[in-house]
Amino acid sequence: MFLPPSNYKDGSSFSARGLNVDFDDIDSYIKEKKEVSKAYAKSISLDYPKLREWDFKLLSHFKPFYAPLCDMCCMCTYGKCDLSENKKGACGINLEKQQSRLVLLTSCIGASTHAAHARDMVDRLLEHDPERELKYDSSIDITSPIITTLTGIIPQNASDLDQIMACVEKELTNLMASAHTGQEGDYLDFESKALHAGMIDNLSLEIAEIAQINLYDLNKGQEDTPLLEIGMGVIDREKPVILAIGHSIAPGTEIIDYAEKMEVEEDLEICGLCCSAIELGRTSSRSKIVGPISRQLMFIKSGAPDVVVLDEQCIRADIFELCAENHIPIIATSDKCSLGLPDKTDEAPAVIINEILKGELPGVLIRDVKKVGQVAVELSHQVKECRKTAQEMKTSSPEDLKLTQSNGRCYICSSCGTDCEGETLSLTEHFAGQECEDPQALIEECIECGQCDRVCPVMLPLTQAIKDAKTDDKELMASFYGKCVGCGKCSEECSQDMPMVNLIRWAAQDKIEAEKFLIRSGRGPIQDVEIRRVGAPIVFGDIPGVLALAGCSNYSQGEKEVALIAEEYLKRGYIVVAAGCAAMDIALYKDEDGETLYEKYSDRFDKGGLLNLGPCVANAHAIGSAIKIANIFARVPLEKNFVDISDYILNRIGVCVIAWGAMSQKAFAIATGANRWGIPTIIGPQASKYRRLYLGNEEEPRTIKDKRDGSTVVSEPAPVHLAYSAESMNECMVMTAKMCIRPNDTPKGRLIKLTNYVDIHQKYYGILPSDLVHYIRDEKEIPFKYKDEILNQLKDAGWEPRMAAQEPSIL
Ligand code: SF4
Ligand code: SF4
Ligand code: SF4
Prior knowledge:
The protein is α/β, with parallel strands linked by helices. Helix content is about 45%, strand content about 10%. The protein has five domains: about 1-40, no CATH class; about 40-215, Substrate Binding Domain Of Dnak, Chain:A, Domain 2 (Up-down Bundle); about 230-430, Rossmann fold (3-Layer(aba) Sandwich); about 440-500, no CATH class; about 515-810, Rossmann fold. Helix 3 (about 95-130) runs antiparallel to helix 5 (about 160-180), helix 7 (about 250-260) crosses helix 12 and helix 26 (about 620-635) crosses helix 27. The two termini are about 25 Å apart. Bound molecules: iron/sulfur cluster (3 copies).
């Protein structure tokens, strides 16, 4: 199913799928497609009953596994109810059903978050022009793989997206309603609904991406996107620093636009944390990328930002206190995150700025992003000026100080007045940023009781670091930067109230200032031409897998582990795509040659390619690429054909999502949606925290269908699981290779995949895997390097060669 490039002209021609296509020939075809799309648009529905059937098939192979953190339910006032030891709640629910209900709720929260973001983008597009034609890259024919597969529609303008959003919102409301006490009462139906919510999340991601790419003219899938600087050390603190935190591009672009309009863009540092950073990097080289969510605490505590602008998602719940401690004014911009701040949307910018500078307001809510642009730029200049003045005051003698005041240096915050004699200068000092009390003196107060060591969840040897620091050796303390997760437990338990996170930042100051890396600008969708190039090698197994790295690695060493996983598999010719914080994590690592992986590997969707797709919502393109392979390479029709597409992906495309790190509800929803598309996920580490998995039986062969003749075939358990949690990076390394095996692999493809699996197993576990008997169908598939040992293993297991299914399917 394809439409021609949007810039085609009648009478011309173009090439697609190796065919020369004459537009005269396809005009009627395109008209037909558009008519089909319009027909579907009249009554958009997602056909849940059919999808539910698919879920039950899927879950018959991959059983839900629960590891409840709690066996009480407190969700309504009949309770709280004890569900332990097979007891039921007052409403009749048992622990298994309750767990699946929580899974549904988690998936719904994640999906709603992305749907709300998509709604915001679509509304902005509608405001702009409801009928404006959506633009896609001319080399992309399948512009909306998720939307088209689910709804049959190829959206042409904002009104189309608006209609699809209405459908998303209706489905989400129904799903949430199912979680009410006294509604759904079957755990598989709860799971089916959780999968539905995940898929709706994925649909919302694609809607948001299409809307924002069009609104802000972002990269549309071009290769060779530029390398951008990332890291705390790339921020020039001599200039006023505006930090945008969150996931929306809207406030940041307005800040850049206003700075450019006032011609002050060279005098400002506009930077972002989390997906806002990647978003801004897609639209402007003016903005700088501080890093992923894991950098939020340290960067705020560093006192570098002069103004913090918040949009939505992944904002620390204590951001208000953190900014207040560091005297950084906050501008909240969304109803989703208002932090109790006064709504100043209708106030004049000058009045807002004055109130903040006078210290009357710690921050404001401004729901008009244009106004946010103006206030943030002007406020940042004035706060920076106050801070500089305060700094000078600290180093000035009283005489010099009087001179400075009489020179008018403090007039900026006006309330101090030019006749200020010292006390009222506190307003200027207010913005000076938190000056850590003398750290050396603080350390001396430590009684070395060791309590902090005992409570630190990542087991940092804090007492030893303090002992070292007392002798002026800060190396161990500095090494905690990147390992400390900022939980604050050490300070809570310390009888001396030691501000440990501040001390770590102080010790690591040089390291922080030198932190400079490179990341590719987010590129957006995968082009059709790239899919044509790699479709066959992926489906046959010559390219052993496509790994999609996602999730928020805000736990100790998380960033490095994400990069090491990427590096291991890039070296082996897998395609690695990443989005959101995972894309930034990869950038914060340099290999032995001192290069980041983005410098080392091309950003082509091809063997050994490393792609930054963009922010979290760009995860849509990872799922979209699998759909496109099914459609472009295997010609599986798209329109409202979710089940066939997902069955194809599950059995034939070696794609795997790895969500490494703490998993927000959004990441949960993305991963659960991917599962419904037949894409397995590995989550971790700290596997015990993930409360629901979908596990296959890895000990037994799997019975599937061969669609070619309808026969039943005994096949390998591949993919082995649908949602698996790995306890450690080593386990993830090994499991990833195994999760990319598919029944459809050719003998050559299987040999390549098994060679990687065996090599990696040997490298990280020191032994050969013991389950090769399931995966070797023919002697030709035995990795050469270990042939004798493996043959012995097969002999012991009574192995015999077998035929592979020609068209494997679970339908
Ligand atoms: S929802 Fe059911 S199990 Fe939970 S508190 Fe209410 S009655 Fe008890
Ligand atoms: S808990 Fe406090 S006093 Fe005890 S060792 Fe740690 S920092 Fe020192
Ligand atoms: S704040 Fe950092 S050092 Fe302190 S307990 Fe938490 S992880 Fe450990």
